[in-house]
Design goal:
about 180 residues; Nucleoside Triphosphate Pyrophosphohydrolase
């Protein structure tokens, strides 16, 4: 089987710094023709999301307004990995901030690139078991979350009805189902 060769990239020129991501332009050379073409990419720190599981078999999810879709969504907790923080530390922090829940040590489920055509970062998915409420939700000034406890048995119905539409959340829930089937 023949695979495409990587393109040679020049230096990335930052066009816009948007705080949580930056937009860059790069001139890349085709390995096939030698021609140069301009490409754009979005750079960000890595992201995390968390599948938090209660002792009763519920997944702790959040409802929040998303400015991109202009809708209230049903998602699992997640966010940006802060500088100097490991993805597992970020997962535990985001879980506590967005839900007020804490549990056992985060178990890695999988890593995906949000969209390799545009993004240079990854999203790390974790499972946190035995989560219980330990504090109030600690949202920043730019977010508001409300906890929704979803029984595991109802998860597929929520997905099938399109009530969970965030692609990275769907990916994390798939990773969780793979983990769960290996554990059974």
């Amino acid at each position: 089987m023949k695979f495409p060769k990587p393109w040679r990239h020049g230096e990335i020129e930052t066009l816009q710094d948007c705080t949580v991501f930056s937009v860059g332009r790069v001139l890349a050379e085709s390995p096939k023709t030698g021609e140069r073409h301009t490409f754009y990419r979005i750079d960000s720190s890595d992201w995390v999301n968390v599948v938090p599981l209660t002792p009763q078999g519920e997944i702790v999810m959040v409802r929040q307004f998303r400015h991109g879709s202009r809708q209230v969504t049903l998602e699992i907790p997640g966010g940006i990995v802060d500088p100097g923080e490991s993805p597992a530390e970020a997962a535990a922090r985001e879980l506590l901030e967005e839900t007020g829940y804490r549990g056992g040590a985060p178990t890695p489920l999988g890593v995906v690139n949000p969209n390799p055509a545009l993004f240079g970062n990854c999203c790390h998915s974790f499972l946190v078991r035995d989560v219980v409420p330990v504090s109030e939700i600690q949202n920043s000034a730019t977010e508001e979350t409300a906890v929704a406890l979803v029984p595991q048995r109802d998860l597929q119905q929520h997905l099938a009805r399109g009530e969970i539409g965030h692609a990275l959340v769907v990916a994390a829930l798939y990773w969780y189902e793979l983990w769960r089937s290996a554990e059974l």
